[in-house]
């Protein structure tokens, strides 16, 4: 590492926590938000790393997120647990509910967590990894902003709706995927626009519904789902399960409510957790050992598992620290010193 | 309808039930199996219609399915219900467990059904539609035979692993999707082989892992998942949740166990059901009305919802009956008259 600005993961975590505390976020929430942001940076998942701090500060400065919200757990004793984020960030809410979700899943075999009324900016892998650490499989999904047209349609209606899954692997990194159900991320189209380069075919349509490779026309039109009508069906399922079913905003409502995409979306999220030991019990087989047979066979073909690169980056960061550029470090300094004024508040 | 051979849905159901009873299948099971086969034919879903009878008779003739299996429910009082199909067809097992699954889902908000040790040949939409009639949302998935390579791999390992979802729509057909996680069905490649036409690019690779449009090379190599690495991740999830987690066969084990693909696969299946009323209760919103907002907006764009064609075919069949060809009718006659001897037993 010849890079001059190397911080340990813990040192970066401390700095980001301090930034959020100075921005007025209550200590527990600052820790949870900083935790996922630093996890993204640590895993070389730059799009969900410290780059996200500015967006969080902006939504704080705009008064569109509640910095002192205390997540409220609601437990009716069923297999559905709820946590009201109270207009705060989603991460402290998940953090507050995590132990109860794991406990209920072990007791009932399957359980769901509803996160209500939260600002959402983070990758979902953080949540499914946390449950994999508990030995649980899980699915996680949420709406976003409606940038995406349904298959056969012409207008923005669906979100980029991420879908994540985690499966525990004894003594190793869990099997984790987490992807947008759009072909590409909106930020990727934005990068092409800035660079003046065309986007690949199949990413988007223009406002008349015609295929386009022009980033401006794409941003003005609609993005497309991955996998054609199948991806569109999954994205629709996410709107229904993590929006309509919870009585929380779907992607179009989230956009209408915020009045634009300058700030983070406000909506709910759904996590479904399953205990493999309960499901397998009567079979007499070890579900995690069976899982290893499959996952090992994938690797033996030379195929990469989802998240493999992320886990490799994590190991490197834990060992060597996280390298930041001069500009990134200067920004952290400014955020720490100026608080919300750094984003024009 | 100028077709001479038109049967009412009920008349066809009666004929198919009789075929299975004469083949030695216990009455209750014959009704359940005939029900899903005739539903496929009625919905103009020919690949899951009466065409499937021959495959079912073959597996009966081979003694690889238990014709007199009585599904056994196992209920530990948790949110996971199990039904042992006892080596019989999956449909009677689902039928036996359906009411308890719906009841438990209403009580607990979310519940899962494990179907163990079954022969599986039917589309999953039948099950998720049955749950939508109960006002429940549901997910259904199962392994199959390992014809599909994981993204970045070169060898058959994953099944064509179907994934289905149902969502109730008040006063209308439910929102239902049900698709293979492979790009195409194996039968479609077989049809190209017989016709001597190339398959589209992106469907399959040859045994060396190179892209191919030659149907023979494709059948000898491996099929590909829909949506690249994202579809591959979902297919892997299905192996883990509906295979490893249940302690039932994954797709490769199912193939090894049957020793070839001439007969239907034997494995388990997983259904997850959710009660929208429970999930939405604290929001004060009507989850099904919210769902209508989304689904109506998709239609208003001119986009078709999954299963729309199937529901239209169903309405036509219920009104006008089901038209069968001379050959199809002759085959029904033969199956009814000769029983298992019709398939060489």
TrEMBL record, chains A, B:
Keyword presence, Oxidoreductase: yes
KW Oxidoreductase (keyword) present: yes
Keywords assigned by UniProt, alphabetized: Oxidoreductase
MF GO annotations: oxidoreductase activity
InterPro entries referenced in this protein's UniProt entry, alphabetically: Mal/L-sulf/L-lact_DH-like_ah, Mal/L-sulf/L-lact_DH-like_NADP, Mal/L-sulfo/L-lacto_DH-like_sf, Malate/L-lactate_DH-like
Pfam families found in the cross-reference section: Ldh_2
Superkingdom of this protein's organism: Bacteria
Gene3D superfamilies given in the database record: 1.10.1530.10, Hypothetical oxidoreductase yiak, domain 2
PANTHER family: MALATE DEHYDROGENASE, OXIDOREDUCTASE-RELATED
Record family assignment: Belongs to the LDH2/MDH2 oxidoreductase family.
Name the UniProt record assigns to this protein: LDH2 family malate/lactate/ureidoglycolate dehydrogenase
Annotated organism of origin: Breoghania corrubedonensis
């Amino acid at each position: 590492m010849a890079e001059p600005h190397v911080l340990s993961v813990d040192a970066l975590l401390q700095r980001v926590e301090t930034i959020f505390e100075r921005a007025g976020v209550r200590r527990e929430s600052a820790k949870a938000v900083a935790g996922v942001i630093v996890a993204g940076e640590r895993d070389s998942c730059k799009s969900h790393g410290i780059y996200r701090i500015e967006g969080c500060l902006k939504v704080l400065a705009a008064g569109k997120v509640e910095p002192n919200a205390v997540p409220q757990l609601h437990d009716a004793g069923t297999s559905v647990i709820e946590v009201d984020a109270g207009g705060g960030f989603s991460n402290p809410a998940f953090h507050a509910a995590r132990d109860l979700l794991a406990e209920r899943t072990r007791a009932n075999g399957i359980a769901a967590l509803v996160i209500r009324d939260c600002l959402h900016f983070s990758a979902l892998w953080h949540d499914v990894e946390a449950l994999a650490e508990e030995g649980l499989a899980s699915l996680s999904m949420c709406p976003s902003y409606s940038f995406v047209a349904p298959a056969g349609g012409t207008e923005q209606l669906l979100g980029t709706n991420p879908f994540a899954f985690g499966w525990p692997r004894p003594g190793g990194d869990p099997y984790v995927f987490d992807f947008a159900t759009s072909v590409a991320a909106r930020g990727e189209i934005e990068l092409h626009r800035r660079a003046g380069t065309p986007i690949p075919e199949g990413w988007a349509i223009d406002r008349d519904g015609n295929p386009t490779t022009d980033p401006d026309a794409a941003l003005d039109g609609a993005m497309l789902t991955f996998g054609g009508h199948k991806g569109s069906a999954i994205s629709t399922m996410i709107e229904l399960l993590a929006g309509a079913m919870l009585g929380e905003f779907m992607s179009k409502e989230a956009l209408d409510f915020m009045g634009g995409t300058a700030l983070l979306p406000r909506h709910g999220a759904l996590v479904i957790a399953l205990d493999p030991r309960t499901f397998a019990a009567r079979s007499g087989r070890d579900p995690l050992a069976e899982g290893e047979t499959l996952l090992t066979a994938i690797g033996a073909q030379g195929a990469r598992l989802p998240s493999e690169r992320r886990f490799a980056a994590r190991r490197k960061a834990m060992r060597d620290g996280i390298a930041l550029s001069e500009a990134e470090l200067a920004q952290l300094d400014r955020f720490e010193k100026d608080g919300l004024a750094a984003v024009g508040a």
